[in-house]
Design goal:
By secondary structure, the protein is α/β, with parallel strands linked by helices. The chain is built from nine helices and eight strands. Helix 2 packs across helix 4 and helix 7 crosses helix 8. The structure holds cytidine-5'-monophosphate.
Length: about 220
């Protein structure tokens, strides 16, 4: 069974989904991290042109796991959990994610992963393209200013923030929103049956309780 949260960059999807996974004791899947992992691979391979890069995909060994509040990503045996958060990856990821063959690779990985357990996952197209039959679909949004402020604070706590200003983060989010909403392959879009949660001005605890209430009312999920 899967619950999905879609929405633009920095809307609070991943921190919310992680906290819900902790409280309900279910699994968490960060779909953006998988696009970031492939972007990391593309950069590490010296940014080859599309067809050469696609030839690398069948040999890619990807492993993900959620533990201790972290979504771990291993690519060909190397732990890239932190490296995929840097600004260089953030600047390229929407271009990499716009390639249909790459989307297919990521979607196959995710559909296979969630077969055996209860998951909450966050992304852009999970409710529309990847898991159209999800048990529950949430669409989270917040103003660009608030999203940039949150992402900037996150970056400061992580190791990918050297020399990056709040204005840089805002610019990056706005460009990614544009690309994610306007690409032809599975754009960022609210599913018709998704419930909208706008988190501007809400505390973290308020948004968590709101979504947990929805999950418990709709799915009667108790573990
Ligand atoms: O969620 P996060 O900001 O880490 O995602 C990084 C990028 O991955 C997004 O800007 C988007 O281009 C891409 N993405 C996507 N589809 C998803 C999740 C992420 O295209 N389901």
């Amino acid at each position: 069974m899967i619950i999905v949260i879609d929405g633009p960059a920095g809307s609070g999807k991943s921190s919310t989904a992680k906290e819900i996974a902790n409280r309900l004791e279910i699994q968490y899947l960060d779909s953006g991290a998988i696009y970031r992992a492939l972007t990391y691979l593309w950069i590490a391979a010296d940014k080859p042109e599309k067809n050469s890069f696609l030839k690398l995909l069948p040999g890619v060994k990807l492993q993900t796991a959620y533990k201790n509040q972290m979504f771990f990503v291993e690519l060909n045996g190397a732990d890239i959990t932190h490296a995929i958060r840097n600004q260089n990856v953030a600047e390229q990821v929407s271009d990499v994610a716009s390639v249909p063959e790459i989307r297919k690779f990521v979607n196959d990985y995710m559909r296979n992963l969630v077969l055996d357990d209860i998951y909450i996952a966050d992304g852009r197209d999970l409710g529309t393209a990847v898991f159209p039959n999800a048990a529950l679909k949430i669409y989270m949004d917040a103003s660009l200013e608030e999203r940039a402020r949150r992402r900037y604070m996150e970056l400061q706590e992580d190791d990918g923030s050297a020399g990056v200003t709040l204005e840089d983060v805002k610019q990056n989010l706005s460009e990614r929103d544009q690309k994610d909403q306007n690409r032809s392959a599975d754009p960022l879009k609210k599913a018709d049956d998704a419930i909208i949660i706008n988190t501007t001005g809400k505390t973290f605890e308020e948004q968590i309780s709101e979504i947990i209430d929805i999950i418990q009312n709709k799915l009667k999920l108790k573990r």
